[in-house]
Amino acid sequence: RTFLSLMGAAALTSSMMLTGCGAGSGDDRKIVRIGHVQSQTHPDHLGLEAFANYINEKLGDKYRVEVYPSELLGSQTEMVQLTQTGAIDFVVASNAIMETFSAKYQIFNLPYLFSSVEAYHEAMDDPKVTDPIFKTTSKAGLETVAWLDAGTRNFYTIKTPINQPSDLKGLKIRVQQSPTNVEMMRLLGGTATPMGFGDVYTALQAGILDGAENNELALTDNGHGDICKYYSYDMHQMVPDLLVANYAFLNELSDEERAIFEEGFQIVKRTEQDAWEDAVAEAKDKAENEQHVNFIYPDTAPFQEAMAPLHDSVLAANPDLQPIYDLIQQHNAAHTAD
Ligand code: GCU
Hints:
By secondary structure, the protein is of the alpha/beta class. It has helices at 2-19, 43-59, 76-85, 95-98, 117-124, 127-134, 179-188, 200-205, 217-220, 247-252, 255-289, 301-307, 309-317, 322-336; strands spanning 30-35, 63-68, 90-94, 142-148, 153-157, 172-175, 191-194, 211-214, 230-237, 241-246, 294-296.
């Protein structure tokens, strides 16, 4: 991690010196830097590449977008901090990470918040649900400009198949660095081990962890399925990834530029979401047939029951979230009736 961070910092500094604004090169385009944690085949990266192409084509005389994958610029938390200060301009961060920058983001980290994928997509596409969260971090220097699909999160383990919540008792499970996720593991009786995504593989390999929780792409793209042979569809969370911008960068754009960037944000979202379903199907196939991961389909009700108290505690601590929570329930109800 430290080594990678140093590498990231070095890459950033040299790219700033070589290609940064002017610097004697006669090139006065602004370099727009976007950092993320995923591989170059991940849907997030495909969406950002489409964005880079679009901006470079429309505004290439003024801006050049550069996408840095694979935690090259640091962990997600570090990259959100870099975005906050304007050292980079955008980051893709999990909603889970954002709750340490603004408590309101806790709402989308609640387990079993959405009753179906359809309800999830419709709620996340409803500005009445997302604006009060995404547009309230300007004081922290940040604004969320698009949500990206990150599928459904499930538990996976090295040797203990998880069929019911009590199977998690005493297991060390990696969670994202989010208080809500730590509390979620406490309610299940497991031991939460928060760490950055890039450290999980080594920790699993070293036996520091008994398992983790994530979507299917973590098994293949990140190799976790080489070590963890049980993936259990308890379906506990649909936590979106978010494209988060430096607030000053957005607000310094002219109206025309802003309109082009806004179209670009829709391109990231559409490209990412269009690629998602196939990426999951491919990952599942590879995990099953090449990594020999066993997929388990437990009854999800006992998991949901164990995690239910989190809804009440998060709402009690953040009463402003109640109207948004109620709106989400309307989206849920609309789809239960389908
Ligand atoms: C998913 C998600 C990432 C997140 C990661 C994690 O891959 O898309 O944004 O960082 O999970 O568990 O840390």
